[in-house]
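Quick one: structure tokens for this chain, please?
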Amino acid sequence: MIYLIILGAISGLSEGAGVLPDGPLNAPVGGTVMFTTTLTPSDGPFTAVFWNFGGMNIMSYETTSSITHPDYEGRITFFPSTASLELRDLTLGDSGEYSVNIMPGLLTGGTRLDIYEPVSSVTVTPPSLDLVEFNSSARLSCSSSGSFPSYVWMNGSSEVTASDRVHVTDGDSNLTVVNVSRYDQGSYTCRVFNPVSNAISDPVIISVSFGPENVTLTVSPSKNLYKEGSNISLTCSAESRPPFLQFFWFLDGEQLSGTGPELRLMNIQTNQSGNYSCQAFQSKTLRYETSQPSSITVLQPISGAHVRSTNLTIEGNSVNLTCDASGSIVTIKWMKDGSDLILNDNMALSDNNKVLSFNTVNRENNGDYLCTISNPVSSSEAPYRMDVMYGPENVRITGKDNVTVSEPIKLICSADSTPSATFTWMLNGTVIPANSPEFSKENAELSDAGIYTCQALNHITDRRSSATFELFVHAGSICNSDFRYVWYLWMFHL
């Protein structure tokens, strides 16, 4: 007790000696705080340590034993090597000023501990669902439990900052956006925090109705002039939220019966020419906007485009393709395989592109041709498939050229030809009954040996081409070279 008297008399002389760090210390209810001194074990040993809270001694240590105030039993752990103290199971009543007196050296120190209830149960009162751009204000209110909360408003991942239209009031717990615009909409959250905790609300969606605006009329297909009988689709679009709009259609200022976003003019006639426009209406904003007019002029068309050939498309022949149609022909355009036709030295256009001439047609000219005849009000297309006929050529026979008696024979003849060739087989100059590309026999005989000829015929080009194949047939006991010698003697009676 002598230590207490002495320390009480001189404690003011040691204030601010740095035994405890500057405060305050912050901790949550139910948590743990460590009062860590700036001393190290080398500064000891300490003969007496006294920890005080609000003028009350809560723990005393002298030499080797310690005494804890009954109200703090089980909540304090003392560390004699550094004179530090741990306090657990914190309550709001533990907030206040703490001090320590240490002997020898008459060292003292003080700090403050603030206990906070963690923030929780963050909720946001949403604004009205019927927010109209420039006409409405959005008001959100944030509430939570916990000690001394601070508030931050977020729109998505961005912090909301105050401006002439954005007001943050009542300790930042209320957010008001005056005369909302479409750029104010988003997912809003309220983040609440104090020195020991933070929490965030569920998102609240602010949706702002606006429009209609930028009303656009699109005509498909888009042309200056249309042929009579065409099908035309007019589509009206506008920027708006929500996107649900009513549309009204007008021809030369007179309202039509259609009310949807699309007006279809089927089999259009000349008396339907005029200036078309559409008007969009938004039931949330109660606003109208009308598109710029689109002019549609309908005239009678040309029709019946067709392509005819003046000759068979046999490779080597000259061929003319003539494109024609009824009506007034102004332009004729040729395409091949989906691309504009590119002429080469073997091709020419004449008669205002009506006639496409091939000096000597070849298989490279194969493809899908398209002739398009047009005038200012219409067009007509005529497809033509060119398949150049050629061959036969490159006739070849494949198969085994050396078989034994009773072994099967299988020879296959092929040729490059359009259309496909027909085949005739001959053995040693004599036609044999085989008219398919394949000649086969299940059991070879010695008489099957000889020179096989396959003749290919293209019935359109009326051209023929042949290939030969020498087949050797021998008994199994005779080697190839001996058999061929005997076969030749037999064939030529030598």
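The radius of gyration is 51 Å.
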